[in-house]
Amino acid sequence: MKKFLAVVSYDGTDFFGFQAQKDVRTVQKVIEEALERIFKQKTSTVAAGRTDTGVHAIGQVVLFSCPIEIDASSMKNALNANLPDDVYVRKVSEVGEKFHPRFDARRRIYNYFIYNSKEPNLFLRRYAWWFPYELNIEKMRAAAKFLEGEHDFKSFTKSDDSQQKTVRTIYRIRIVKLRGRLILIRVEGRSFLRRMVRNIVGSLVKVGTGEWEPERIKEILELKDRSQAAATAPSHGLYFYSVEF
After folding, report:
1. Residues labelled catalytic
2. Are residues 74 and 194 in the same domain?
């Protein structure tokens, strides 16, 4: 039985995250329902990462086994014909039997968008965090440097997270001013803790407003205490951008 890998985009607004849950709409659930209609049997999927309620994806990666004779291009078309309008399969390719989208991932990239303007943009309200106060990008960049490399990110994970190992490596954080008053925060790493990127963004914004100096980020890392970091940034500004294998 061949295995396919699908690169999937979705608008997370109307989903309760990626992972299948009982009695709520999730991305994994609608993908598996589409596969069941195509294959006429239940099919499970494995993704490169989970996204929370309201988080979007541009390049989520989903693995599944294919019990019928079909090529990758036709598989893509069949999936898109059976998926709702807020999910789209960008590409399907065949992979080896031992491939695993989580364990074989070498780099995951998340994008976070902030709409930095005194007035809101109604057409971005589901896709970027509206922040009406001035942000100092240079100070945010200086603070982000303290987060690059291998660190214990216990201060930046979900407070009730039961994961024991909280050491992670961030390869790079870029903060870029885009057109239309948008600010992009791109975080690249091999793997992430729950809400880690959103917690990082929330704390970088504290630096950007001048409430904290950049060195405060280094102190928070060393304290290993979630209560010392800033509030979590809203989910709708976050995008699972891509995975590299």
Report:
1. 52
2. no
